[in-house]
Amino acid sequence: MQQLTQEQFSNIASTIPHQPGIYKYFDETGKILYVGKAKDLRKRVSSYFNKTFTNYKTHELVQRIHHLEFTIVNSEPDAFFLENSLIKQFQPKYNINLKDSKSYPYIVIKNEPFPRIYLTRQPVDDGSEYLGPYTSVFKVRELLEFIKRTIPMRTCSLNLAQKNIEKGKFKVCLEYHLGNCKGPCEGLQTRADYDENIGQIRDLLKGNLRPVIRHFKEEMRTHAEALEFEKAEQVRKKIEYLEDYYQSKSVITGIKGGDKDVFSIIKDQSIAYVNYLMIRNGTVVQTQTNKLETHLDEPVEEILVYAISQLRMTFNSHVPEIVVPFEIDYPEADVEIVVPKAGDRKKLLELSEKNAGYFIEELKNKERIKINRNVDHVKVLEQLQIDLQLQELPVHIECFDNSNFQGSYPVSAMVCFKNGVPSKKDYRHFNVKTVEGINDFASMKEAVYRRYRRLTEEGEPLPQLVIIDGGKGQLSAALEAIEALELQGSITLVGLAKNVEEIFFAGDKDSLKLPYNSPSLKLIRFIRDQVHRFGITFHRQKRSKGTFKNELESIKGIGKNTAAELLKTFRSVKNVRERSLDELAAVIGKAKAQLVIDHFAS
């Protein structure tokens, strides 16, 4: 590994200016290791080569630096934003890593006459208005359902251009009769009225409830003055629904001071957790906690500044007030950093810290559940080892099954379980290659032989237990494959009799019957069901693609359609073989029937 030594750096240090900018460190392959910002590029970069680091990861970074590049900018804020942009683009190994790969949902107001409003995860540059992103798709669906209950909007995809409405191309649908739409498709709602509804929805989504309630109160008063009491009552219920539902969903309401972003941070060794509360119109409209991995023992202030920048960028926030737990050097212009001592802002900060703490506790609970599940799986495997009298704990189990369709199209499938759970990357399908016709025993032998020959050749570990879904005949066929590979004694083979769920060992006359609800049999049953599902799915795919060729199609003069007609009528190749010339001739004609008879007679 080539390294940029202190002596080599001293030769180029004078070329680095005393100006603000960003610097990039590369390894010998040209891969970016780290991106940093600086008020003074020469001082900052020199510090990496002119002092001894106590932090191991920083020392490791310096050891890997092969060359560096820098970019001069006009100001420290410019350096800050360029650094964030490059980190997001290249995700260097030694920079702070924001663990957040989600695709957040948006609510789109479509750019079209009488715009539709719906959920999307992929904003496109089509002139539509995108509100969000939101931290929860459940929240978005809840908001859309709330809007539907409160403000009538169309949900159809009709082209409601004015000329189409004037020509009378459309008729109102059930949504109109249910009161969920005012019928713009028939010209029953004006564009101005619809646009006013869109404005109300914008206010709702931004947490601005007062204008919407004020509009409904005026509408209710108008209906009351016109003695339309039923309509007035409907509007009153909407107001009540708005106040009860929307405000009850808000975490805090009535916060003074307008819009603001609130951030808190909890650091635990090399992991930091940052919570973001988005406050709009005195209401907490969104909350998000993110996990960050640190690499160079960065100060907590630096981590928080980076997280704030990324989260505000992700959620398109440009509010001028940021509330944080301690002083930070945040270089965004026209932004006020507030460290509250008391009052509403302090309460919000405490709420943010509470959310971050809850997020950490949830992660720990999930880890504990995962550990407990692993413990439970080990207990089941220990019981299975006792029940089957296995020499080793069966942490690796494989199960085979054959499948065919109406006596044709044979395939085999194998599923793999590791530590008591499916290891789906190790599942395998087998197209039967060496067996002519339908022979379950030979098909099983081929699949088992191919599987363990491959594992042996590749030096992969063998399973402690192999389950053959079938009776003694298929178990014996599988044992022949194991013996041909000289693996007897390395693998325990058992057969699982269909229906009665008896377990057979090779060479034993009597079967083993486990209690119906025993953990061991439940696991074996689950494995058996998995191999059935996996094999049947594969079989259906092959049939739908027409990749099978049954024995009838191999008869000279009998094509695919004729073979299909025979199978449709007689249900299997075996039944076709047993039919008389006259019976076959009644379906496919005498000449072709004779070809089939001759084939099976030979």
How many DSSP E strands?
19
The residue ranges in which pLDDT falls below 50 over 5 or more consecutive positions are: 248-253
Count of DSSP-assigned helices? 19
| Average residue-wise pLDDT | 82
Helix percent reads 40-55%
Overall shape: it is extended
Radius of gyration, whole Å = 35 Å
Main sheet overview: 7 strands, mixed
Query: How far do the termini sit from each other?
Result: 72 Å
Query: Approximately how much beta-strand content do the residues carry?
Result: 15-25%
Helix/strand/pairing class, anyone? alpha+beta
Question: How does this model look, in words?
Answer:
This protein is α+β, with helices and mostly antiparallel strands and about 600 residues long. It has 19 helices and 19 strands. It has helices at about 5-10, 40-50, 55-65, 75-90, 135-150, 160-165, 175, 190-205, 210-225, 230-250, 300-315, 345-390, 440-455, 470-485, 520-545, 560-570, 575, 580-590, 590-600; strands spanning about 20-25, 30-40, 65-70, 95-100, 105-110, 115-120, 130, 260-270, 270-280, 285-295, 320-325, 335-340, 395-405, 410-420, 420, 430, 465-470, 490-495, 505. The strands form four sheets. Strands 13, 14, 15, 16, 17, 18 and 19 form a seven-stranded mixed beta sheet that branches. The protein has a six-stranded mixed beta sheet with strand order 4-10-9-8-11-12. A three-stranded antiparallel beta sheet has the order 2-1-3. Helix 9 runs antiparallel to helix 10 and helix 18 packs across helix 19 (about 590-600). The chain is extended. The termini are far apart.
